[in-house]
Amino acid sequence: MDLSAINPILFVAGFLVAATPLIFAAIGELVVEKSGVLNLGVEGMMITGAICGFAVAVETGSPLMGFAAAALGGAVLSLLFAFLTQITLANQVASGLALTLFGLGVSALLGQGYIGMKPPRLPDIDFGPLADIPVLGPILFTHDIILYLGIAVVAATWAVLKFTRAGLILRAVGESHDAAHALGYHVKRIRTLAIMFGGACAGVGGAYISLIRVPQWTEGMTAGIGWIALALVVFASWKPWRLLLGAYLFGGITQLQLNLQGAGVAIPVEYLAMSPYLITIIVLVILSADKSAAPASLGRTFHASQ
Amino acid sequence: MIRLEKRPQPSRAFSLATPLLAVLATMIFGGLLFAMLGKDPITSIITIFWQPLFGEFAFYYRPQLLIKGAPLVLIAIGLSLGFKAGIWNIGAEGQYIMGALFGAGVGLAFYPVESFIVFPLMVLAGAFGGWIWAMIPALLKVKFGTNEILVSLMLVYVAEQFLASMSLGLMKNPEGFGFPGSRNLQQYDSAFNADLIEGTGMHWGVVAAMIAVILAYVLLTKHRLGFAIRVSGEAPRAARFSGVNPTRLVLFCLGMSGLLAGLAGMFEVAGPAGQVTIDFNVGYGFTAIIVAFLGRLHPIGILLAGLLMALTYIGGDIAQSNLGLPAAAIQVFQGMLLFFLLAFDMLTNYRLRLGRTEVV
Q1: Could you say which residues from 21 to 50 on chain A have a Cβ atom under 8 Å away from some Cβ of chain B?
Q2: Pairwise CA distance, residues B160 & A270, whole Å
Q3: What ipTM was estimated for this complex?
Q4: Residue-level pLDDT at B358
Q5: Contact B325, B31 (CB under 8 A)
Q6: C-beta atoms of A90 and B290 within 8 A
Q7: What's the pTM?
Q8: How many CB atoms lie within 10 A of CB B111?
Q9: Which of A125, A206, B4, B50 falls 20 to 30 Å from A117 in CA-CA distance?
C-alpha cells in the first residue's frame, strides 16, 4: 500500500474532471424538476449523448461538433419523454424509466461500430503563465473548455432562476401549475422546453465521459452516473450552488476510490467501487429532512381541464 | 383540433386493448427499425414472434419460454404490488442478485452433503436475501422519508459489485482451475433446481411464479391489504381517511417485491444459470418493470406479459443468430414496447375529441 503515490494536486484536478458530467446532468435535471417534472430518464439521455457525441466527433474530427451533437441527441430523446408526460399524460416515473431503458438500447445500437475507437482530443485551454502558479495553477487552469462551461451553466442557471422573469415563470409552473395556468402561462410548453434543456445538458454530460474523461465508447459506460445526478438534485435541495458542491463531493469520492485502488490499498477493489453509491445513499438519508425546498408540483401530471 | 377530455370512468375496453395496441405498434415501428438496420422487417418480426412458438426448433424454444418467463413474472408480480400503491421499487435487479447470492451461499455451504433439506433452506435463504435488500430502502423511507427509487437503484450497483466480489473471492470454486465463478450448482443434486417434468423447462421457479400469480390475484381482489394497496394508488386521500397505515404498506410492498425478486434470483442461480459469476444478472429486474406495466399491474396480465417478453428475448436470440440482428436492437424493441404502452394508456383515461374548443 503506497498512499504517497496519490498526488493531492493531481487528485483535485482529477476530481474536477470527474465531477463535470455530474454537474451537467444534474443542473439540467434541476431545471426540469424546478418546472415540476420528475425526469428519471437522465441515465438514458446521458448515454445517448455519449454515443452521439462520440460518433459525430469521430466522423467529423471535431470534438466540439461532438458536444453540439450530444446536446442535440439528448434533447431529441427528451422530446419522447416530453411527448409521453405532457401530451399523453403518462405517469412520470414510468415514462422516465422507459426513457432510460430505451436510451440504453438506442445507444448500444448506435455504438455498434465505434467500440474501441479513439476520439479526437479536445485540447486544454492554454492560460499561459497562470498554469504555472504553484498549487492553484494545475488545479484550476489546466482544463478544457467544457469543464469551465459546466460551472458557467450552473452560474447562469442560478442567475436566471433568481433574477429573471423567465426563471420566475419556471418556478411558478413548478410550484403550482394550476395557478400558472390560470395566469395564462402555457404550462406544457414551458415544461417541454425545460425537459429539452435537461436533455441537452445530460447529453453534454454523457459526451464528456466518452470524449474526455475515459475517452472511449463502451456499452453502458455511464454506469449509473445519471442516477447519482438525480440524487444530487435532491442533495442540493434544488439550489444550483449546493449542486456544484455536491458534484465535487461525489467526483471526489469517485476519484478517491480509483486512486486508492491504484495505490494498492488492502480493501478489495469491488468494495471501493461500491463506495460512491453507498455514500450517495447516506447523503440522501441525511438530507431527506429538507423536503421543503422541493417544487410543490413535482411529479404531478398537469391537465388543463382539472 | 384534437382535444383530450377526461373520461368519467376509465374505459374497460381500452384497458384491455392498450397492451394489444402497444404490441402492434411496436411490431410496426420495430419492423421499421430493423429495416433501417438493413434486415427484412417481415422476416425479423416473424423470427421474433412466430419462430419460438411454431418454428422448426420450437420444441427447444418452448421450454425456454417458461425458463425466461418465470423470473420475469415472479419479479413483476412483486413490483406490481408496490407500483399499484405508488411505491416505486426500481432496485429489483439488486434484490434478485442478493437472493441468488444468499441462496447459492447456503447451497455451497452445505456442499457436498446430500439431503432433501438443502433445497428448501436455499429457497428460504434466497427469499430472505431479497427481502432484506429491499428492507433497506423500505426502512429508510419510513424512518427518514428517503426516496425509495434512488436508494433501491443505488443498491443495485452495490449488489453488482458484491456479486463480483463473491464470484472472485469467497464463493470461488476451489476446484475450478483458477477460473472465476462458483461451483456449478447443477452438478450438486440436492441443490439443483431441476425441471419437474424433464425437458419442459418447468422448474420450481415456474411453479413459484404460478403460485405468486394466484396469490397476488387473491390478495388484490379479496384481501383487505389488497384493497389498501389499490386505494393508496388510486385515491391517496381516501386511503388516509379509511385508515390505511402507510408505513405498514411501504414495508409490505417493498418487502414482498424484494422477497419475490430474491426467490427469482435463487431459482435462477440454482437452475438455468448454475453458477455464481460476475455477469450472472441479465437485467431481469429491469425488464420486469416493463412486464409489470405491460400487464397493467394485474396478476393475469403480468403472466401474459411475462410470456410475451420471454418470447421477445428468445425471438431476439434467434434473430441474432439467424439474421445477424444486433442484440441491442431487441433492447430498443422492448423499450419501445413500454413507450407505446404508456402512450396508448392515455386512451383509457381520456377521450379524444375533434373540434373547436368551447369558448365560455
Answers
A1: 40
A2: 9
A3: 0.83
A4: 60
A5: no
A6: no
A7: 0.87
A8: 14
A9: A125
Least confident stretch, A25-34, A252-261, B147-156: A252-261
**Band of the pLDDT at A207, cuts 50, 70, 90?**
very high
Does position A289 have pLDDT exceeding 80, yes or no? no
pLDDT, residue A306, reads 47
Are the beta carbons of A102 and B336 separated by less than 8 Å? yes
Region B120-139: mean pLDDT is 94
Residue for cell digits 476519484?
A: A255
Distance from CA of A267 to the nearest CA of B (A): 11
Residues of chain A neighbouring B147 (CB-CB closer than 8 A): 234, 284, 288
pLDDT tier for residue A261 given thresholds of 50, 70 and 90: confident
Strand, helix or coil at A82? helix
d(CA B127, CA A96): 29
Residues A154 and A236: beta-carbon distance below 8 Å: no
Cα–Cα dist A152/A159, whole Å = 10
Q: Which contacts (CB < 8 Å, 24+ apart) does range B305-310 have? A: B305/B19, B305/B76, B306/B69, B306/B70, B306/B72, B306/B73, B306/B76, B306/B209, B307/B65, B307/B69, B307/B73, B308/B23, B309/B68, B309/B69, B309/B72, B309/B334, B310/B64, B310/B65, B310/B66, B310/B67, B310/B68, B310/B69, B310/B72
Per-residue pLDDT of A125-148, as tens digits, reads 777 777 777 777 777 777 888 888
| B4–A94 C-beta distance less than 8 A | no
Crossing angle (nearest 10°) for helices A165-175 and A187-208: 100
φ, ψ for residue B4 (rounded to 5)?
-105, 125
Rounded to whole angstroms, the Cα distance separating A295 from B26 reads: 35
Query: Is the confidence at residue B1, as pLDDT, over 60?
Result: yes
**Pseudo-torsion of CA A129, A131, A132, A134, nearest 10°?**
140
CB B11, CB B359: distance < 8 Å:
no
What pLDDT, on a 0 to 100 scale, did the predictor assign at position A268?
81
* Residues of chain A contacting B80 with CB distance shorter than 8 Å: none
Checking if the pLDDT of B79 tops 80, the result is yes
Axis-axis angle for helices B299-323, B58-84 (nearest 10): 140
Cβ partners under 8 Å of residue A29, min gap 6: A39, A42, A198, A201, A202, A229, A230, A233
Give just the sign of the alpha carbon dihedral B334, B337, B339, B342.
negative
CB B185 within 8 Å of CB B270: yes
